[in-house]
Amino acid sequence: MSVLGTSSTGAPHAADGAAASTRKARSAEPGQRGRWWRFAVLLVIALVVLIPILAVVGLSFRPALGSGANDSFTVENYITVFQQTDVLTWLRNSLLVTLVTAVVAVAVAAPAGYVLSRSRSRLVSGYSMLLFVMQSLPVVTAVIPLFILFAKLGLVDRLVGVMIIYVAGALSVATWMMAAYYDSIPIALEEAAWLDGASLFGGFLRIVLRNSLPGVLSTAIFSFLVAWNDYLIAVVFLRSSWNYTLPIGLETFFQQNATNWGLVMAVAVVMMAPPIILFAFLNKYFSVGGVGGALAGR
Amino acid sequence: MTEQKKYGPAGGVLASGDGGQAVRADGVVDGVRRARRGVGRAGPGRQPQRAPLRKHPVFGSRTRTLLAFVLPSAVLLLLINLYPVAYAFVQSLKDGSLIAPGHFVGLHNYASVLTDPRFWGAARFTLVFTLVGVFGSWLAGLGLALLLRTRVPARGAFKVLLLLPWVVPVVVSATSWNWLVATPQSPIPTLLRHLGFGDVLFLASPLLAQVTVCVFKVWISFPFMMMMMSSALASVDASVYEAAKVDGAGPWQTFRLITMPMISRTTFVSWILMTIFCVNDFPTVYLLTGGGPVGSTRTLVVLAYQTVFQEFQTGTGVAIAFLMTFVLVAISVVLYRQIRKVNIE
């Protein structure tokens, strides 16, 4: 029903394409020219689309105005940023918050998604509906009551506080993603395990979860992005500069040194590097496509 | 179909509520389940007989296990999602501020919000922003998904590169867009001046600022649509296309008559999700324009945020957010039911 991890077919296709190109070079099919036309179109689109991202990288290596260096390329911005500001602390905070969020979100969503995938009781479809409604609530509504609640619990201006909110924020989609992946695992495997005397939990852990690595990775990446890219929660809940995450840290550069774009962009590069590296390596595991099936299937 | 669906792939073995009925299933369902397991009537199919024997102790613990599976996420939902909504509703009936709880004022906040022209202006722009965001990103995403499905050199690289706008944090991309367009000295206005368009102030004129914000939103969101559409397209059986080719269908006909119906369900789901993402989107607008100039790009979320955190009128701000939430939840519940009806397999 659902197609998770479809992008994993990318690699064989690429090999396919390479083989085809050598074949076509000899036979000169009419499709050959179309391929390069499409390539040109995609290249132009990609370049235009990536201008803002390329600009960030380019500016981060340009010397600041009035600095001694007059090369067109310098790493001075990065040195300044790492030595004279709290960027390392913010980076550590961001990584800590994000990794914990990803792990906890998977740990919470994996069993919940299992119930969503395997059970069809009325209670479960009610729960699925609740997830959907929760997903559609604006964070702004929740921020004020949460702030008051967290102030009572002593969680304001603490990284644990924002972690809890991020996990809850990623939960709906994470649960659907896990459910979508489980849907692709035949129940016969678990039934065999049950007959061999495995408990429900044992079957889930040893049979289903062990075969769900792409689903788990996909969900973890999604939760990572939710936490890493957030701005609103961090700006409301994190108050002291040693607790800042990178998005809030980046803001301080606009206030302090009006527009030293070189420094701003160096921080921006530090901020966008982790998700880009993550995607460069794990892209083939990531797919949101299954969510459609998981939503519509029940 | 309904029979199968009701007892699902799990066949009710796991379903705590109707588990018992499924085990006592009538012949049809039993047959379906046997067929699904690949066990014929004469085969070694002893499971249906054995299951009821172990039913009582096993089901008790199974139900408990299932509850334990859902418990952590249910607690989080209640505490971090449901409780704030209830609390926000109470807040919206009071005239408090961030620090003072305030007194009950009934529906006064709602009345003042609904008579405020700023609210209706924000509502109008939210609508435009959402419509452009959903359909703009869908068209771009679908187009690119179709292009990337064909044989193209460096396809894998394009797939990753085109995801970047969605992967890069909004704070970073908003910074970059600001640098590109905000002031008359920025690169794009400079370029346009050299091309003879005069002074184009993207974020200073109300209309252009609205356009810029919408384009920015499409730029951020199209990769999500591209992923959704790619996976929907991948699930369409390739042999269908070959059959269509043999029958002499042109590319447009193939797209309209075969591809579109096959991906309609995912399309519908992606529209709904994107509607929710757009209406709730705070940073995209706030970081690029802050709602300005003269409030032209203020969405409801931004208005609620400003009312609470800049004007310190908690009651009014929450009332705005709550009105929006109410409309959005109503719409999403209706649409959610709709998705479940649309069932094109």
Structural description of this entry:
The complex is a heterodimer of chains A (298) and B (345). Chain A has two domains: 11-79, no CATH class; 86-296, Orthogonal Bundle (MetI-like fold). By secondary structure, chain A is mostly helical. Chain A is built from 14 helices and no strands. The radius of gyration of chain A is 24 Å and the shape is globular. Mean pLDDT of chain A is 81; it is low at 1-30. Chain A starts with 9 loop residues before the first helix and ends with a helix. Chain A is 76% helix and 0% strand. In chain A, helix 2 (31-60) packs across helix 13 (261-282) and helix 8 (187-195) crosses helix 9. Chain A has helices spanning 10-27, 31-60, 76-84, 87-118, 122-135, 139-153, 159-183, 187-195, 200-208, 213-229, 232-237, 246-256, 261-282, 289-296. In chain B, helix 15 packs antiparallel against helix 18 and helix 17 packs antiparallel against helix 18. Chain B has 18 helices and no strands. Chain B has helices at residues 2-7, 19-23, 27-37, 47-53, 55-92, 108-114, 117-149, 155-161, 164-167, 170-181, 187-194, 206-234, 238-246, 251-262, 264-279, 283-288, 300-309, 314-341. Residues 1-58 of chain B have low confidence and may be disordered. Chain B has 345 residues and is mainly alpha-helical. Chain B folds into two domains: 2-80, no CATH class; 108-341, Orthogonal Bundle (MetI-like fold), CATH 1.10.3720.10. Chains A and B meet through helix 1, helix 2, helix 4, helix 5 and helix 6 of A and helix 5, helix 7, helix 8, helix 9 and helix 10 of B.
